[in-house]
Amino acid sequence: MKFPCVAFGPSLSAQVKLASSKGARPSVSPDGQWLAYFSTDVSDQHNLNVVSVTAEGPMQTFTILRTAKGFATFAIHWTSRSMCYADNPAVNVSQITCQPREGGNPSRLVEFNSGVIFYFALSPDQKQVLISRSFVSDDVVLIRDAK
To answer: Are strands 46-52 and 34-40 parallel, antiparallel or unpaired?
Structure first.
C-alpha cells in the first residue's frame, strides 16, 4: 500500500506535507528527525527516500537495484549512520543492504546464497541482527475425486 508522505503535529490537526511522491513502508529515524520510505518512480525504478520530518531541506533519493521479486522486504531499520533493508537480488535469495544516510555506495550487512528474509531487526547496540528467513515455493496440485 502506498501512502501520501505527511506528518501530523501533537494534536493531529496540523498536517505537513513531507514529499510529493507516495511511498510504502515508512520508518522514522531513532532521533525522530528523519523519515525513510520506499517508492517507485514513473520509470518503475525502486527508490529509498529520506526526508526531514519538519519538511525542511531537500529529499534524498537513493536508487535501489531492481530486485528479482518485487520491492525490498518489509522494513527499514536505522543504524547510527545508515538505513538497512532486505533486498532480493535473485529468486529465493535475500541480503541485508545498508545505505549510508549521507550518501555513497550501499554495503551488505548480511549476505546469503539462499533463503528469503521475511523480517529482520537490529539490536539497539547494532552488534546483533535477528533474521526470520525461509524458502518460498510455488506448487500446483490437481486433486480429483477427493473424498
So the answer is: antiparallel
Q: Is 60 exceeded by the pLDDT of residue 122?
A: yes
Question: Would you say residue 143 lies in a domain?
Answer: no
At 1, is the pLDDT very low, low, confident or very high (cuts 50, 70, 90)?
very low
Is residue 55 situated within a structural domain? yes
- The more confidently predicted of residues 48 and 15 is 48
Neighbours of 43 (CB within 10 A): 5
Residue 69 is part of which domain span?
A: 3-134
Q: What angle do CA 89, 120, 136 make, to 5 degrees?
A: 50
State how many domains the chain has.
Answer: 1
User: What mean pLDDT is predicted for residues 56-75?
Assistant: 65
Burial class (CB in 10 A: 0-12, 13-18, 19+), 18: buried
Tell me the CA end-to-end span of the chain in Å, nearest whole number: 40
| 114 is a domain residue | yes
| Nearest CA-CA partner of 72 in 100, 50, 40, 101 | 40
State the CATH number of the domain containing residue 35.
Answer: 2.130.10.10
